[in-house]
Amino acid sequence: xxxxxxxxxxxxxxxxxxxIDDDACLLKTLLPRDILNPQGKIIVRAMKGxxxxxxxxxxxxxxxxxxxxxxxxxxxxxxMMNDMESWAEEKFPFLKERAKANGHNIMWNFxxxxxxxxxxxxxxxxxxxxxxxxxxxxxxxxxxxxxxxxMPGSAAVPYFW
Length: 161
Description:
By secondary structure, the chain is α+β, with helices and mostly antiparallel strands. Helices cover 33% and strands 12% of the residues. The chain contains six helices and four strands.
């Protein structure tokens, strides 16, 4: 499984990590204004409404503000992943034992665990967690479209840009 992208915060000195989904492609050149707003917050885009992934969020005790599988690449604060990993370890104590047994970190084992709960969107779990986080919520600019499309992952709407 290609969970390497959820370990990048430990392999880079960058304060921001950007990830593109394995089956996505870039349609334009990214500029700094596409990533950060003038206040230095990372811009995150989503569509409101339930989709096939929201049930996994509920099963791990998270809310669901929207579908973040809409616009790639996605960016997050590197340090945030350490906090999310600590949350996952506290919420699912068995992850620590799995990590010892298989040699992968807690986050890798958490993402793998999501697959036992249904078909997850790893990015939805990450950003819905950040949205609910008192520490991380205000470090992002949440651009959440007021409506959903019939197909998750449809083309980005002008509202996003």
